[in-house]
Every structure is written in structure tokens, then in C-alpha cells.
Amino acid sequence: MEILDVLTNLAKTGRLGPVFSGADWSDVTAALGDPWDIGTMGRNENWPRLFAYGDLEVSVCRCRRVSLVCVQTWRDVVELPASIAGGTGTFQAGLKHADVVSALDRAGCPWEPYAPLTFGNQCSLTAIASGANFTFEIPEGEEPILNVVGLPGDGHDCSARTADQDR
User: What's the pTM value of the predicted model, to 2 decimals?
Assistant: First the structure.
């Protein structure tokens, strides 16, 4: 499988295997194993936490639900769990805007420009089916290159706010 196939499937379905906004964290770790624990996303709290499976980053809420998903594509090589990406899970990065748009169009995945993240030296588009956002860096004098792909949060209002669950 190629990286564009993986990202196009994400754009169409809003999922990378067991990983999607709103997924139960225990289901993700049962399927993919233990991630790298990058740390908390707040100053004085234990949750939400950011975890990574290579270049797949997942924010997990205190209620143990996946709240945000992104794939970092700005590195030279993108590493994803082989079980969800096929093959080794290692892909060359440097995806150009035209290649991403062409792959989405071939897959029948409608998209539109995303104005809130289009400014300065970046541009962005959103896959309509899933809300997946593709944000590109525009190096001076060059074609835009994919920087990150993210899924929208599930918008839940976490009610799990007890001290026991914050540990």
C-alpha cells in the first residue's frame, strides 16, 4: 500500500484501522499495542494526553476516548503501524498538493479548500466525507508539500472529571 492510499482511505472513512475520533482507547491499544507516551497537553493536569504510534499522533481525553487524530507528514519518512498501513508502514514523505488532490479525486473523495488554515506560507483542504484536514506548507518558489493530516475532534463534552480518573 502507498501512503496516498492510506491517507485517501482516512479521508473517505475518518479511520485508520481502530483509530478514529471518539474511539475507545482500550480498543486502540488492544489492536496496536502500547504507544509512545508523549505527555500531557495541559500544564497541571494528567489528561488529556498525547500518544504516538510513529507519526500517527492521538490525543486521548480523561474519559479514555480518542479526541484528536493526526498524521505528521512533514518528516522525510512517515512511519505508521504496519497493521493499519500495510507493508512495513514506512513511507517516503514529501507529498505534493497536486498528488494529494489527484488521489482524492481518483478515489471519489470530494474535497474543498479550507480557508481557516490557508494563510501565509500554508494552504489547506478538507475532505467532505470525514472532515479530514490536509494542511500543506508552501516553500518559497515551490509547490505546496503536505505537512499534516488531521481528523476533527468528536466534540464530546467530557464529564469524567473526578480526581481518580485524572491519574
Answer: 0.87
